[in-house]
Amino acid sequence: MRCFGDTMSRRAWFLIAVVSALLGVGLVFLYSATAARCEHGRSGDAFFFFRKQLLWTVLSVAAMLVAAHVPTRWWERAKVPLLVAAFVLLGLVLVPGVGRGREGHGAQRWLDLRGMSLQPSEAAKLALALFLCSYAAADPQRLRTFFRGFLPTFGALAIACALIAKQPDAGTAIFLGLTMGLVLFAAGVRLLHLLPGALAATAAGGWYFFTHMEHVRARIQTWLHPDHDPLGKGLQVKQSLVALGSGGLWGEGLGRGLQKLYYLPEVHADFLFPVIGEEVGFVGAAGVLLLYVLLGVAGWRIARNAKSPFGFLFPVAMTWLILLQAALNVAVVTATVPAKGIPLPLLSFGGSSLFFTMIGIGVIVRIADEGEGNERPAAPAQEPVRLDHTSS
Fold first, then answer.
1. Residue 117: helix, strand or coil by DSSP?
2. Which region holds residue 264: left if phi is over 0, alpha if psi is between -120 and 50, else beta?
């Protein structure tokens, strides 16, 4: 196999270098953010979170290497079984006694696997991206029809979002719907089909969230009026802004941040970026964001050089998933949008997110290897979207 051999694409090496840099930054700041709390907490081990994340990093890198050696045609053929497996996992989470939540959280979002936790929504992101891109690549023209193109793809997306919303996890459902909706548009689904479906799903989802999820309304109220409960529901975001603001241009110094010392909750998971901003300042935080931009550039270069429609679509979809999730995390910690528990991809603590993201990176590496030396064919994403009714 050519992967990781002498002839592997330079574009793939560039992607691997950027991903490695993000993984390294994540491990460094995870230890900085959690060492003091863990050493003086219940575990008594400063390396408690670091050791767990290092193990997941090793497993995830191994998974990436395996995925990078699997021919892309296998992923295309396995699209339906992988999607069905993801739906089964999402359904199991909802079964009493099987799915579980975490202390202080009412939602059931995890499955226990012999001491390790699996979050099926992370698997669903990857499986859905593989399904949509493979389905579109198999026959790009059918994407412009309603029954053979729009209905199967949008239906799969709607089922995944509904199962995730039922956990309940409104933020992830909204994020997945938005991201994969953009993938459908890029793949060639007609706007005349997509827009009404998106509006109907938005209306139904909005009604469900506001009538069945009190915490969604509470988070919006806290976002609109953070000073109403500064030591309660508004504490997390306010302390996040304090951390980012106190970092200044160059930061307080690595390991010298104060907000991580019991002031900022969930610092190891969804609020790692404020620790980065406090300790290495605006320059360091901007450097991390630049790494995400470079990851997007790497994915786009691989997509442009791909020799198949799937090879074009999947890197675009996967990099969108990573970049938009990073953007949403930064928006939450800067109080730009209401609070939502969403990790910073490749940096935050959490095995499921890292594991399935790295599998997706491995698929992109394989696409880069297979596409080296080949020109990209005309991709469905570049076809203009026509609003005239050509088929139904």
1. strand
2. beta
Phi, psi of 308 (to 5 degrees): -140, 155
Q: Per DSSP, which regions of 199-318 are E strands?
A: none
d(CA 212, CA 391): 38
For tokens 């915490």, what's the residue?
A: 215
99-100 and 110-113 beta bridge pairing:
antiparallel
Longest dimension (CA), the chain: 66
- Which has the closest alpha carbon to 13: 301, 313, 326? 301
* Mean pLDDT of all residues in 223-241: 76
Q: What tens digit of pLDDT does each residue of 79-92 get?
A: 999 999 999 999 99
Tell me which amino acid residue 301 is. Answer: R
Encode pLDDT of 116-125 as tens digits: 788 999 999 9
Angstrom distance (rounded) from CA 56 to CA 354? 7
For residue 264, which of 84, 37, 80, 88 has the smallest C-alpha distance?
37
**Residue 259 confidence (pLDDT):** 87
What is the total residue count of the chain?
392
pLDDT for position 377: 42
DSSP letter, residue 120: H
Cα gap 183→161, rounded to integer Å: 15
Among residues 377, 385, 359, 383, the alpha carbon closest in space to that of 304 is found at 377
pLDDT of 113 above 70: yes
